[in-house]
Amino acid sequence: MREMLLNAFDMNTVGHIQQGMWRHPRDQSHRYNELSYWTDLAKTLERGLFDGIFLADVLGVYDVFGGGPETALREAVQVPLGDPMMLIPAMAAATEHLGFGVTCTTTYEPPFLFARRMSTLDGLTGGRIGWNIVTGYLDSAARAVGLPVQVPHDERYDWADDYLDTVYRLWEGSWEDGAVLADRASGVFTDASRVHRVKGVGRYAMDAIHLCAPTPQRTPLLYQAGASTRGRQFAAAHAECVFVNGISKPQVKALVDDLRSLAQHPLKVFVGATIVCGRTDAEAADKLADYRSHASAEGALAQFSASTGMDLAKLAMDEPIQAQTTQANQSNVESITTRAAAVWTKRKLIDSFILGSRQPPIVGGPETIADALQAWVAEADVDGFNLSRTVTPDCVADFVDLVVPELQRRGVYKTAYRPGPLREKLFGHPRLPDGHRGTQGRVRS
């Protein structure tokens, strides 16, 4: 029977996906800047045998709704926000197997510097690092780094292709396996003949030796979440794990089929999910009602406006939302315009914000939740889930204590971790597979 994969989906911030949940009296997300908050979370996830924690990030504030950042600031919509990379060493030290998928953009940082930071993390964690590749979508981020406007959507992916081909050369083509001798008798630490200078690709004018010796995975496990036409092309070329969102199973199944048909290597597909679980269906329903009373529609509108590049504050409640050309998240624009079966309005959007986001929660006792997750795997052909938080840390502990045992009882979830680096745990091998685009410049020992 197909084994389900699980990631926690989180962010180094107060309000991540479910806007307003920080208001709940039991929520602890205001402790996002305390290491113990994250190390305790990591220990709980490892107790539940989660494959990893998937850490989102953005480089800018949500200032589209109402023409400014006031709503995002007031409602704690992904601001204040810390660097997700800083969390990983502490969480890794508190665990042995948990993987870490960290979101980093290709648009604003030289590949040479980025490659070293990722290699350092992969080495320190024993090969537990994944990279969620993003190109950015906020004009506020572009302005923050000195650009007048955001780079056009498809052009960002063209840049990203060159960026990936450049970091592949650093990770895969600079150091041969066995270059490090650490021979005290001869006094030779590194065999210089087995270390190679590599060149950048396209717009990245680089001439360098990678500063890090080979790590357990060399190239970190590659995640990507683009669902636009150009985003899917990019994911098929590079990603090993793809994160998708969708309201209906047929919609997600069509997306998954397209991704698998385009890819030249095996893919693991994770769908976003929000879980509200209790010991019984009735208890879970009561919990949902309690959580829902704290949800923020204004916060959700601020987040959605930024992700689409459309200021929804300008629309009347029942005015149809029309497709617009923006440089933001094209898949989000398409989801309520060209790919939508019905006309969307601001009122309809607000009605869909059950817990402060468009993601409808799966609600019930352990058996009901397990049935729902298995149905997604069977009908949408996904491999697993990125589970976003509601009231934290309760939501994670509830899932680990209630749902994980039920999934294990059904034989659809592991009862122990496999050995090896993150890629080996998921795919059975620690390095990029032969035939992947990243191996074209691989140095042969």
What is the average per-residue confidence, as pLDDT, rounded to a whole number? 93
Instruction: Sketch the major β-sheet.
Output: 8 strands, parallel, barrel
> Spans with pLDDT under 50 lasting ≥5 residues?
none
Question: What is the CATH homologous superfamily assignment?
Answer: Luciferase-like domain
End-to-end span in angstroms?
A: 39 Å
Q: What number of structural domains do the residues give?
A: 1
Please state the second-level CATH architecture. Alpha-Beta Barrel
- Order of strands, main sheet, comes to 1-2-3-4-9-10-11-13
- How do the SSEs run, as a string of H and E? EHEHHEHEHHEEEEEHEHEHHHHEHEHH
Beta strand %: 5-15%
How many β strands by DSSP?
13
Which percent bin holds the helix content?
A: 25-40%
- Tally the helices: 15
Shape: globular
Structural class: alpha/beta
Describe this structure in words.
The protein is an alpha/beta fold. The protein has a single domain (5-439), classed as Alpha-Beta Barrel (TIM Barrel). The chain contains 15 helices and 13 strands. The protein has helices spanning 35-47, 70-75, 88-93, 111-124, 139-144, 153-173, 229-238, 249-262, 281-292, 297-308, 330-335, 346-352, 366-380, 394-409, 422-427; strands at residues 5-11, 52-56, 99-105, 129-134, 180-183, 188-190, 198-199, 207-208, 221-224, 241-244, 268-277, 362-364, 384-388. α7 (229-238) packs across α8. The longest helix is centred in the middle third of the chain and has 21 residues, at 153-173. It is globular.
